[in-house]
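Reading a protein record of the kind used here takes only a little practice. These numbers are not coordinates but entries in a learned vocabulary of local backbone shapes. Here is one such record, which you should read through line by line.
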Amino acid sequence: MRSFACPVCGHLVFFENSVCLHCGTELGYRRSQRELVALDGHVRCANAEVARCNWLVDAPGLLCGSCALTRTRPADADLDAMAAFADAEAAKRRLVYQLDDLGLPTDGVAFDLLSSAEEPVTTGHADGVVTIDLAEGDDAHREALRVQLAEPYRTMLGHLRHETGHYYWTVLVEPSPSRFRELFGDERADYAEALQRHYSSPAPVGWEQEYVSTYATAHPWEDWAESFAHYLHIRDTLQTAAAYGMQVHGRAPLDATPREDPGGFAEIIDTWLPLTYALNAVNRSMGKEDLYPFVLSAAVLAKLKFVHDLVTGVRV
């Protein structure tokens, strides 16, 4: 994500800020400008209170372009679920910002943000509707599932990127799937059987050579969604690093300076790998696990490049 500054005093502010903590100016995000602006004369989204939304709208009582994508949410009286809903909406606003930045349409996707406190909720995607279990916003619940499923990385934003990836498969890939099948396999394989096999069997030996995650091994659709989400992770992190002037210096080939708008896929990877090496080194110095616990094999890079080419409109 790009960096933002208060339009009055110039101090850095976060994308989520509704007020500048330095000068007190009330702020709102104007989607058409992709900027945080002073609230003067502007109107906040109708979800400003219930979802802590700082986006602006054209008239009182309207939902912003991100909140309007949510089809179903918890009842106002369900305070626990509504707190989780606000966290999920914050992650969704980051997703929508990035989709706008990449030029991907959002008018065909909708979200059901549901609480599993009273009845089961399955996170997934069907016919353009992304369903999210709001329990994924709870750190303890999410960490337990991460360990249970042997996942190195699990976040609400990651879920949103993965599930919307299924929608973009129908937009970007389905019209002409031949190259996709060469890289990912035939998506016409029985999906239910593939998932049952995935959850009942250990990950294939050597899966790291072909897939970005163990879940990607389940079915070509999941391989695409995992690769799509991973591509969005990379692009967002590199843009943030560039916006804040982060550079990596060391013995070659570690030197790298991310750009907010990189050129081709090769440049993205040439700056991404040194950055992740440095970030992992910082985490290890703090006694933490690697921030980026992934290995990008040649096969995975080919899949990520395929995603990149489709997202950027390159003919594949």
